[in-house]
Amino acid sequence: MPRRDDIQKILIVGSGPIVIGQACEFDYSGTQACRALKQEGFTVILVNSNPATIMTDPEIADRTYIEPLTVEALTAIIEKERPDAVLPTVGGQTGLNLSVELYEKGVFEKYGVTLIGANIDAIKVGENRELFKAAMDEIGIQSPKGGFAHSWEEAKQIVEEIGYPAIIRPSFTLGGTGGGTAFNPEEFEEIARGGLAASPTSQILVEESILGWKEYELEVMRDLNDNVVIICSIENFDPMGVHTGDSITVAPAQTLSDVEYQRLRDMSKACIRKVGVETGGSNIQFAVNPANGDIRIIEMNPRVSRSSALASKATGFPIAKIAAKLAVGYTLDEIPNDITKKTPASFEPTIDYVVTKLPKWAFEKFPGAEDVLGTQMRSVGEAMAIGRTFKESLFKGLRSLEAVKPLRLHDIPDEELQRKLARPNSNRFSYLTYALQNGYSIDELYRLTRIDPWFLDQVKQVMELQAEIDGRPVVEYSADELRKAKEYGLSDRRLFYLSGDDETAVRDIRKGKGIKPVYKRVDTCGAEFESFTPYLYSTYEEECEAAPTDRRKIMILGSGPNRIGQGIEFDYCCCHASFALRDADFETIMVNCNPETVSTDYDTSDRLYFEPLTFEDVMNIVDVERPEGVIVQFGGQTPLNLANRLHRAGVPIIGTSPDSIDLAEDRKRFGALLDDLKIPCPENSSVTSSEEAKAVAKQIGYPIVVRPSFVLGGRAMAIVYDEASLDEYMRMATDASPEKPILIDKFLERAAEIDVDALADETGVVIAGIQEHIEEAGIHSGDSSSVLPPQKVAEEHLDTIKHYTRLLARGLAVKGLMNIQFAIKDDRVYVLEVNPRASRTVPFVAKATGVPIAKIASLVMAGKNTLADFDLPEVLDVRRVFVKSPVFPFKKFSGVDPVLGPEMHSTGEVMGVGTSFGEAYGKAMEGAGLELPLAGRAFVSVNDADKGQAVKIARRLSKLGFDLVATYGTANRLREVGLECESVFKVNEGRPNIADLIRQGEIALIINTALGKASFYDEKAIRKAALQFNVPCVTTITGAEALVEAIGSKRSQTAVSVRSLQEIHSKESARAETT
Questions:
Q1: What gap in Å lies between CA 541 and CA 230, rounded to an integer?
Q2: 505-514 as b/e, with b when 16 or more CB fall inside 10 Å?
Q3: Distance from C-alpha of 513 to C-alpha of 375, rounded to nearest angstrom
Q4: 328 pLDDT exceeds 70?
Q5: In the chain, what is the straight-line distance between the N-terminal and C-terminal CA atoms, in Å?
Q6: What are phi and psi of 932, to 5 degrees?
Q7: Helix axes 615-625, 637-648, angle to 10 degrees
């Protein structure tokens, strides 16, 4: 069937900020869909609140709206743009839920919009667990036994019938939010009540536990002619009970018999037809009982899912792109395969290699959260590896996770080891290998872990090989032993650890014996047809398919798995470098191991190496490709950590030199540079022992900021107010970053923080953006909201900041991007830190200014242009007010206090655009999932230093019509100045207290600044109650001022105004503003 010609304009709904359970795989799917539909001649309108994405680049869609994903904002966009259709299936759960809500509220009907890619009935059957169960019963596919509850009473009845353990799954939530496994009535009540609250439809499924069964997923596609293809089968290494996002997963499935696989295929086809997904991809999950082969269907997602990204990267089959084409009327047999150029998309992919995905967690960021994996997803990122065998891909995957300090276990008591094996946790794999090395049999391990014996045997074989070579110098290994170690996926670094030889020596010995990797192509067809796309992975075999060219080439090192502090923003920079250099006629080579990203799409760069970002793996690629330049400054800390070794090995690193990068990181060298340039910075020092730290702290004076050097995201960073806390920190911090000193700075209390991004080379310096942080110093820059242009910074300070930026750019000989953090205290500007590399604010600044700064930087670094060639103003123009706000995962980590500090906790960000600060900040808050209260009771409790400011805020709230509630001290102060205010007990003073009022839904807004250790318990209870009941809670006085301004702006608005980036940055708009 040819493409539909009854629609011209299509609206694509994005997935919003990156949260646990919904990460940048939806940037990849949204970008693919936009490109595919534009290619077909449709006008594409995109809405997404996340500025750090490639999909929100102005050139990806015809109209790009960075607006909150709310019914209100979408209605305004639909009214303005009048699209013919909406594609809801590439924006994750958020895009799907929002589209259903718009449909149900009659918005689509009112403006004549049709849904494409999924019909409303199919979405409802796929997403509503009750309807899904009924549909599966009708076609004879068994689901786990259980039932649906809409209230606590109904839930109690069901659990009495099915018994314990029971699994609770709320409907319409993401990444298992609100769900869990209950082993007794007490746990059941807590999880069931939480699940009913978490589900937007107050519906939970209570079902029998199938813990310990094997779990499989099939990625399925269907077109309008009822062609159904299975793209990929995926098997979970971990059994049922661990969320698939937290499990190691393997494609293709390894332990299914042919008969079982055919049964799953048949069930998948029957399921997608019954649910009624007419076009596009679906992900279907099954559980198989290892004892008797019984099968239960768990769930299906009638949309492009997190696993679709993995299946796409694993097979080379671009699921989102094909889903978008199917949605506009094509059938699978009409769409050609990009990689083979000979086969159509109805040709099922076959793969002659094994792909393993491993999750990356961040439990160390959330002290107090229990490190246990269950049905709620906790991982913040993932790495994928490709090898010819399961062993090779598993061990390549493990080194892709970049454990700074691998867990080396010693003398673990048996009972502790058994507990760690039986209760899945983020270090489970280390405990598994330890048990195998210490005489545990496969049967015993299977009994404890329920991990399939075939997988356990594979790991055991690697452990046996390690035992054979342990302690022998690598020189003594025979060529066969060394080749076998490499075929098993053991890294040079691992061999250096086992043998005691130096890693470089291991590499030299290996190369001397002629043992080098070859590169194979991902070709979608098991090598049956020639592959025209250089999408490559390494393995230790004979024939190499790399076929490097002799073009001018530049290699870009990506940022590896997402984590807190290093996310999609860096992938954005890497993609931009690739796009710009490709256009400038360089051959671009991308090296990365993150399956969720746009950078690992086979058509982003000329050549893609899906490899770990380690010295060994990067050097192997350099040996084959011989690039004229390598970019390490765009992928965050991961490639920067390799910069010096690569440089020493003769790799041509372009842009700012590794020496300058090191100068900015090295305290003593950087201090000397600041002295030369006469730029002030807070007093600081670096120390390596507790005694030294105490002496320095006495000299500088408390409070101080302490942190390890060479880390990202404020890892292990803290503000210390006294010697006892410093002692504790030094005890804990020694493993934050091995062989690197601890840095100590004077903490500038109540200083305003400013972030500057700039472009520089020998011809000049362009200041791309000066952002003012809304929270004061002491909160990590990644966790603070910031505004561009600055709103409250005096002109003279801005001039000083510009002057210092230019001095530092020249002093560090920056060639490319740089980021500087400044603080202003007592009318003096201080430099806090300088990073001569891309920062996480680059995409935000690029969207706000309309200037693609990462592209310009990469052309400058490659020597293609000088900065002067671009004819940019000294400071880029910002035509509206843009606010960037962070999004936090606290809901996933119960037991953690949601308070902000110098260590970064946010997983993603949103952007708000407005003509005033209030409008922009309000939109950013709504984008981050906060509903702005427009009336009700506002609770205020602040420390003495904030009381003066709190009075002004309270007066403004009172004028806006809010009733004031405060704790005793604050209430007295407010009454003194003539404000009416109700008093309420603190949590430890009696009942009903403030936490009770929050739980009763009596409070609309909370302003609660920290009062120190005495009231810590009280504040923690308030913040947790606020988080649980979704009440806006601000913990800084500057944040409170901003929120009140946003509420005032929202109340005075008659309608929501929405503006596309193309509109904001158009020449007409610039002309209108200058006349």
A1: 29
A2: bbbebbeeee
A3: 48
A4: yes
A5: 52
A6: -70, 120
A7: 60
| Lowest-confidence region among 299-308, 505-514, 632-641 | 299-308
Q: What is the mean pLDDT of residues 186-211?
A: 87
* Long-range contacts of residues 544-552, Cβ cutoff 8 Å, at least 24 apart: 544/518, 544/519, 544/624, 545/518, 545/519, 545/520, 545/521, 546/518, 546/519, 546/624, 546/625, 548/624, 548/625, 548/626, 549/587, 551/586, 551/587, 552/585, 552/586, 552/587, 552/628
Q: Which helix (H) or strand (E) holds 484?
A: helix 479-487
Largest CA distance in the chain: 87
Q: In what order do the strands lie in the sheet with 295-301?
A: 295-301, 280-288, 214-222, 228-236, 249-251, 354-360, 381-387
The 3 state secondary structure assigned to 892-958 is HCCCCCCCCCCCCCCCEEEEEEECCHHHHHHHHHHHCCCCCCCCCEEEEECCHHHHHHHHHHHHHHH
DSSP 654-699: -SS-HHHHHHHH-HHHHHHHHHHHT-----EEEESSHHHHHHHHHH
With beta carbons less than 8 A apart as the criterion, state whether 144 and 208 touch: yes
Burial of 293 (0-12, 13-18, 19+ CB in 10 A): exposed
Higher pLDDT, 26 or 1023: 26
- Going by pLDDT thresholds of 50, 70 and 90, the confidence category of residue 738 is very low
Element (H, E) at 587: strand 587-592
DSSP-derived 3-state class of residue 472: coil
β-strand pairing of 85-87 with 114-115:
parallel
**Mean pLDDT along residues 172-176:** 66
859 pLDDT more than 50: yes
Quickly list H helices, 234-305.
Answer: 258-275
Which residue(s) pair with 297 in the sheet? 286
Highest mean predicted confidence (pLDDT) among 159-163, 307-311, 547-551, 750-754: 547-551
pLDDT digits (tens, 9 = 90+) for 228-268: 999 999 999 999 989 888 999 999 999 998 999 999 999 99
Residue 715 has a pLDDT of 66
pTM confidence score: 0.92
- Residue 299 to residue 309: CA distance in whole angstroms: 18
DSSP annotation string for 601-657:
STTTSSEEEE---SHHHHHHHHHHH--SEEE-SSSTHHHHHHHHHHHHTT--B-SS-
Token pair belonging to 845: 């600044």
Handedness of CA 274, 275, 276, 282 (dihedral sign): negative
CA distances from 899 to 84, 600, 754, 793, 836 (A): 44, 35, 21, 26, 30
Residue 736, pLDDT score: 44
Higher-scoring residue by pLDDT: 623, 1028: 623
- Angle subtended at Cα 812 by Cα 808 and Cα 814, rounded to the nearest 5 degrees: 95
* Res 1015 pLDDT > 80: no
Measured CA distances, 384 to 396, 916, 959 (Å): 8, 44, 55
Q: What angle do CA 968, 972, 978 make, to 5 degrees?
A: 145
- Secondary structure (3-state) at 425: coil
Q: 610-619: per-residue pLDDT in tens?
A: 999 999 999 9
Q: What share of the chain is helix, strand, coil (3-state, %, to 5)?
A: 40, 20, 40
Closest CA to 57 of 564, 575, 768, 606: 575
Residue 883's region, left for phi above 0, alpha for psi from -120 to 50, else beta, is: beta
Task: With H, G, I as helix, E, B as strand and everything else as coil, classify residue 754.
Answer: strand
Percent of the chain with pLDDT over 70: 96
pLDDT of amino acid 565? 83
Cα separation of 62 and 79, whole Å? Answer: 17
Do 897 and 888 form a contact (C-beta atoms < 8 A)?
no
Grouping H, G, I as helix, E, B as strand and the rest as coil, residue 346 is coil
C-alpha span between 259 and 702 (Å, rounded): 69
